[in-house]
Amino acid sequence: MITETPADLARAAATVISEHTGTAQHDVALVLGSGWGQTADLIGETVATVENTAVPGFTGAAVAGHTGTMRSVQITGSGKRALVFGTRTHFYEGRGVRSVVHAVRTAAATGCRTIVLTNGCGGLNPDWAPGTPVLISDHINLTGESPIEGANFVDLTDLYTPRLRELAREVDPSLDEGVYVQFRGPHYETPAEVRMAKVMGGDLVGMSTTLEAIAAREAGMDILGVSLVTNAAAGISKTALSHQEVIEAGQAAAQRCGTLLAQIISRM
């Protein structure tokens, strides 16, 4: 029996994307988390929009605030194309790690050598008000899973490419950076878990990104990670957490975040 591998599925998806977008090559991939939806409009002209469900291995958006499409965008001021994913598969959806990182592997199969991973998250630093973008300098993966299969020992030193973080700070010198901690979700972290994350060296807590970053490194991609602090984490926040709060904070910061990424991408 012949079993389809993740690489086979990614190549099949890349072929369909090429057919729908009219180009065999994309250069930069963006995965848009909560609060980052306007980015595609600001980085250039959308040449084609593809429904996720038309591409092998992809599903529609499962979370409010995300869109179930991918877009091929001509980056302003360059001859390069960006492949922009309006949603991601979260680990807590129960579809398995292969599904979580399928977009990353597909982006690599389309030719992307750089990927920008964004998310909405809880902040542990009380100075980071909702709406603050923070560069991811490193991460702690608490899912207990890895997207890498077999004896492939991938080095994760400088996982989030230092050169890209420097470029981001050239665009906005006020950008802070921190360590992102991924919990399994979908429930929010308890105050005790947030304290644990802080003791472990974490600055940001959320439910995505780390598995995608590992898969991107395995594929040889440069990685820029940017979190949007949408709320103070449990125990730091004086109010109950809600996804509506995340959406509202993202909408309020959409212009700033989209403009920031557009400027970074134009300089890549």
TrEMBL record:
InterPro entries hit by this protein: Nucleoside_phosphorylase_d, Nucleoside_phosphorylase_sf, PUNP, Purine_phosphorylase
Superkingdom, natural source: Bacteria
Record EC number: 2.4.2.1
Record bears the keyword Glycosyltransferase: yes
Domain Nucleoside phosphorylase: 28-265
Pathway given in the UniProt record: Purine metabolism; purine nucleoside salvage
GO function term, MF aspect, one: purine-nucleoside phosphorylase activity
Keyword Glycosyltransferase: yes
Chemical reaction(s) catalysed: a purine 2'-deoxy-D-ribonucleoside + phosphate = a purine nucleobase + 2-deoxy-alpha-D-ribose 1-phosphate
Keywords: Glycosyltransferase, Transferase
Role description: The purine nucleoside phosphorylases catalyze the phosphorolytic breakdown of the N-glycosidic bond in the beta-(deoxy)ribonucleoside molecules, with the formation of the corresponding free purine bases and pentose-1-phosphate. Cleaves guanosine, inosine, 2'-deoxyguanosine and 2'-deoxyinosine.
Subunit architecture: Homotrimer.
Family note: Belongs to the PNP/MTAP phosphorylase family.
Protein name: Purine nucleoside phosphorylase
